[in-house]
Write a structure and sequence with these properties.
The chain is built from two helices and ten strands. It is of the alpha+beta class. It has a domain at 4-48 and 86-123: Roll (Ubiquitin-like (UB roll)). The N and C termini lie far apart (44 Å).
Length: 130
Amino acid sequence: MPAVNFRDETATGKPVAEFEVAGLPDRMTVRELIRLRVREEVARHNARPSDRFNGLVRPDDAETELNGYRLREARRIDWERQAEIAERAFLGNGFFVLAADRQVEDLDEEIDLTAGPDLVFVKLVPLVGG
């Protein structure tokens, strides 16, 4: 069973954060991988709730900070709500995913996890005034 490294990078390729999830099936859709990633990062946050969340997408009522989000107060986050936000962000070009150095464009595309252990997530930042 494959292990996958979920890695965040800047648009220039600089690594920002990374974690691994083991024991996955050989193939998963992009949607399943995004939901898995979000569930994992929310579980890590909820194990020790704080007023800062480092995750793929901004939770409701949070402010964007450098490499994370500031919550109004320390609280638990609903992973399913975060997964919905992440799916919409993917469809709206809020971030893109690279699998085996190839950009995937469809939530229902299947990824062969035996081909390479890295999934790279690159968040896109809107330009000021653009």
